[in-house]
Amino acid sequence: MEELGKAGAYNGGYLARATDICTEMFTDVDTTRFLGLAGAMVPGGMGGIVEDLIRDGYVDVLVSTGANMTHDTIEAIGCHHYHGTEICDDDELYEEEINRIYDIFLPSDAFISFEEFMQETLGELTDGTTLSISGLMRHIGEHLDTGILAAAAEADIPVYCPAIQDSMIGLQYWLFNQMHKVTIDAFGDMSQLMDTCFTAKKAGAFLIGGGVPKNYIFQSMLMTPPKGFDYAVQLTGDRPDLGGLSGATLDEAKSWGGKVTGEAHAQTVYGDATINLPLIIAAVRERIEHA
Amino acid sequence: MEELGKAGAYNGGYLARATDICTEMFTDVDTTRFLGLAGAMVPGGMGGIVEDLIRDGYVDVLVSTGANMTHDTIEAIGCHHYHGTEICDDDELYEEEINRIYDIFLPSDAFISFEEFMQETLGELTDGTTLSISGLMRHIGEHLDTGILAAAAEADIPVYCPAIQDSMIGLQYWLFNQMHKVTIDAFGDMSQLMDTCFTAKKAGAFLIGGGVPKNYIFQSMLMTPPKGFDYAVQLTGDRPDLGGLSGATLDEAKSWGGKVTGEAHAQTVYGDATINLPLIIAAVRERIEHA
Amino acid sequence: MEELGKAGAYNGGYLARATDICTEMFTDVDTTRFLGLAGAMVPGGMGGIVEDLIRDGYVDVLVSTGANMTHDTIEAIGCHHYHGTEICDDDELYEEEINRIYDIFLPSDAFISFEEFMQETLGELTDGTTLSISGLMRHIGEHLDTGILAAAAEADIPVYCPAIQDSMIGLQYWLFNQMHKVTIDAFGDMSQLMDTCFTAKKAGAFLIGGGVPKNYIFQSMLMTPPKGFDYAVQLTGDRPDLGGLSGATLDEAKSWGGKVTGEAHAQTVYGDATINLPLIIAAVRERIEHA
Amino acid sequence: MEELGKAGAYNGGYLARATDICTEMFTDVDTTRFLGLAGAMVPGGMGGIVEDLIRDGYVDVLVSTGANMTHDTIEAIGCHHYHGTEICDDDELYEEEINRIYDIFLPSDAFISFEEFMQETLGELTDGTTLSISGLMRHIGEHLDTGILAAAAEADIPVYCPAIQDSMIGLQYWLFNQMHKVTIDAFGDMSQLMDTCFTAKKAGAFLIGGGVPKNYIFQSMLMTPPKGFDYAVQLTGDRPDLGGLSGATLDEAKSWGGKVTGEAHAQTVYGDATINLPLIIAAVRERIEHA
């Protein structure tokens, strides 16, 4: 990473600078750290890195897609994602009951085990109650021993999943709720999140992919001006010129009254997070833990 | 478009084929049509195309990001997105209270008008009730004269917004709810959506961008096997090799027990939807309406 | 295109602006127009557009990859590129003697006809002479009736191909030269090109793809400061952040003492040229010819 | 890298597999190794890695763009590329005589030193002679102490630069040749290259970027069927769907009668080579040298 820093060009240089910023963010005790998790990162084997970051105290708030939490649960109950290939016949995979995520294969069996676990776990919820989404995530995490949700429950940090319906966890919840009456309040997490933003001395965002997690993390600061993120690192494969938020620059966020402060230390690295995430985290840990 | 079809190469050929499929999808009376809307399409001027598709009966179900519905509302109440430039100083824009979306500028004034409209409109909701997200969208749409939400309300089609909290509409709702008690049931739309899938003879998906709308549309079919989408067109700037769903091929969806059928007519076009969407829709309308 | 211009966002807006610039460039009688042609554009069916631009007087200098001129020749002698599919078994294609360019198929037969044509045509060159690369291109073009090389020969415009060895034309030339002695002077075109730059009142660059053609066109201006391109349009799928010239912004070219003037009208459009090239040229011709 | 191999997904998995293949390629004593060098890799600080690979005997044939050899020479004569920023005013840079390559700055002074060195070095060539391009590269390399050209000259490996005119070296040569008469035979290297392909027991291609170097390396095998590359690794930021060779899959090359053999060990890694090149080479060296 130091050699990348010396070379300093293009995304290699960005990666070196993102490592510097991430090291600052992780060691600044006044900073509340938000981790955004989008893209098929858990199927892609990145779950362990996120879990360890939580266990070692580097994450205060996790915002994730529902899919990542679904696949985290699937691994935590003992099912596995396999390394397959993207050069294949998907009709054949369908016949063989294998679900493909690019070059990762997940046998449909896993979803049967997942359904059993989910229905049993949801069955412990009390009828007639109302739950926030992070409450639901916590409930699941408390029934798991390993993985991101388990680590978050143990570390007592919230897992926000604004689009939880948009996942297998959501589908299982809907199945469960056919016969039960537990309401998930879509806005049940928002006051807690606003309090976190309001009380934070400084704030840092580490964004793996864009999507809902990135937007949700950034918009959380809009209600507490003149605050904004003091540190921001994003790893994305999207480019800005298509206009979407996932590829938007961190500078653009500065124009939005306080998403990111004018003085923020901020860096985007374009590329595949299955390469850039392990690299940056290994380098940051090396610096912090062997300093 | 016919010449593109004759040339037939690369994304030019894809666009021609997507036009064919879209024409079939729009004229097949047995088909229930799902439109997914992700990316900053409304700020990018694509709202009118979507509104017209709804008004002309080409859309049965809309799934959108909250941001697109926010910007649709902003335009419907008379505020404007301006064509600016991405080569600018974002700190200066912040000082001038201009919010930037790549090369589109939105003055902060718009959010003041938006807040007034939203608080007044939400104020008509009855305390103590529970609403689905599409119910909330319908309520807003009924208070607007133009735009996507207005058209959807008039056409009586549902607008699903699984991550509505993750938008300015969501923030306004949260503000409103500080003093009121209207619960938004995160799962309140799911049974209706499942019914739609269950009763559909055939199904078509037209996906502008990926994100939550794409996943939500595809997963809706997972609960009603052996059904799956018979037609699918996606316009995306993402590539498959990063593993994320937004760039995933439509073939991959076939492996997932029924998201897309093995015999489906399906085509992805890689590129910027601000070019490919107007092109494809103009060509499809030309064929249908001047046939 | 006018509607794209009104929407004005992202690459849709870029395309509208590029159309404006291209219209100016094509109608400004003081402007010498350079066309750069990289990427597999002729196999992708774009040859006819380029040929017509030459025939109608919109091109003064063509700089191309050798591959595009090879495929132009192959079509001009009556062989065809077929629309195949990129989802295929390349070992099987090899067995069937079909050469693939993404979703375009070219049977190996075509190369047999090409070899016959080339050896016969090259056979007319006088042993012991020295030729420039554009001289070689002209010689080939004079033996063809249709296509880019034929049109350029008829219109008496030079075709520069700096890396001609790097193509099937190059391989055929090498075969021919095993038994003959005609020297191709790598630098034989440079003085003529410099003269063109020196005498040009104004200059315009229309760049389809990047690669050698883009660099060669831009560097030609470096020797004639304080000149630079007054108009520049590039259609590219590459992004700037990887550092390569193919994705470099036209602004970057301004820093290089005169490649592009500070006041130049310049626009990049990111995307697939098999879509953007036909669009922009159709719109420009519509404006010029029906004005 | 081993952990990336275990995770195995997306480009992270590709990188691990490319490392395996590269290790095989570098240790297989029967293999002739071709290195392709495109993109602004020397300005981006990657020159040292390439130089060391040559010095340590891992490269038998180098095919490069002219620009990389220009910047290699500039560094070898003691000038420097500086880490600047891509967020800048290019008109200002022009005033300050700083040439920009994305976020790398190169002061125009460097080109003055480069001109002096080149004119002096070229001045040693004997009038009336004819030189191949690799002969010209060798001549330059023999006048340098450090860098790629120097290492290649010392290691006695050829440097092919099919588009040498398309570079500052080419412009300097043209200047020199205004008053001298040394002919550079565009095809002067081809027989030697064909011999290398013909006599190679096995062949490996390590492709940094695409462009002319990739095509030239692959086409060299077309004349010596049934040979083809037994090993191939490419690091590219381009995607296949635009049709261009730079993003074309290595499978596609199999359809082209022998560019890559059906049984080849071949892997593409999509991303920025300023990250992926140092990673892969560090891992390969670790394995080979500490085995």
Structure description:
Chain A has 291 residues and is an alpha/beta fold. Chain A has one domain: Deoxyhypusine synthase (Deoxyhypusine Synthase). Chain A has helices at 2-7, 10-27, 47-55, 66-76, 90-95, 109-122, 133-141, 148-155, 168-177, 190-199, 211-220, 250-255, 273-289; strands at 31-37, 61-64, 82-83, 98-101, 104-107, 130-132, 159-160, 183-185, 202-208, 229-236, 260-270. In chain A, strands 7-2-1-9-10-11 form a six-stranded parallel beta sheet, sandwiched between helices. In chain A, a hairpin with a 2-residue loop joins β4 (98-101) and β5 (104-107). The longest helix of chain A is centred in the N-terminal third of the chain and has 18 residues, at 10-27. The model of chain A has no long low-confidence stretch (mean pLDDT 95). The B-C interface holds B 3-4, 6-13, 15, 40, 43-46, 81, 83, 87, 101-104, 251, 270-272, 274-276, 278-279 and C 3-4, 6-13, 15, 40, 43-46, 81, 83, 87, 101-104, 251, 270-272, 274-276, 278-279.
Q: Please give the CATH class of chain A.
A: Alpha Beta
Distance, first to last CA of chain A: 15 Å
| Overall mean pLDDT of chain A | 95
What is the succession of H and E elements of chain A? HHEHEHEHEEHEHHEHEHEHEHEH
Largest sheet of chain A: 6 strands, parallel
CATH H level of chain A: which superfamily? Deoxyhypusine synthase
Pair with the most extensive interface? A-B, 78 and 78 residues
Number of domains of chain A: 1
Structural class of chain A: alpha/beta
- Strand percentage of chain A, roughly? 15-25%
CATH 2nd-level architecture of chain A:
3-Layer(aba) Sandwich
CA radius of gyration of chain A is 19 Å
| Envelope shape of chain A | globular
